[in-house]
Design a protein that fits this description.
about 110 residues, mainly alpha, about 85% helix
Length: about 110
């Protein structure tokens, strides 16, 4: 079927290609029908409103974790610089280990 359509495209010109492209766009638009289904489900609307209201809290948590990870990494660097220079040779590398320690340990 595809080979026949491709051959028709070369034989008839760009009108067939334009129609096929239009059909592909219409087929893609069918995906957006799911949005109308989700709009009617009350549970998903409640979840969306909860996430929307908690965005400032997420930003505060991410800021706190980023700052504490950087400070913890800088503390790693200065504490371990003399003893273990191969592992912590820069503050960004030590910050990586600090963030991994904070997220893994809790």
């Amino acid at each position: 079927m595809i080979i026949i359509l491709i051959r028709v495209h070369y034989e008839t010109g760009s009108n067939v290609y334009l129609v096929l492209r239009l059909l592909r766009i219409i087929r893609f638009i069918r995906i957006f029908k799911l949005y109308r289904i989700f709009k009617s489900v009350q549970t998903l609307r409640i979840l969306a409103s909860t996430l929307k209201e908690s965005i400032p809290d997420f930003i505060i948590i991410l800021t706190f974790l980023s700052l504490s990870g950087f400070l913890f990494g800088a503390a790693f660097y200065f504490a371990e610089n003399g003893l273990n220079q191969d592992m912590f040779d820069s503050i960004p590398k030590a910050t990586y280990y600090g963030i991994m320690t904070i997220t893994a340990v809790g």
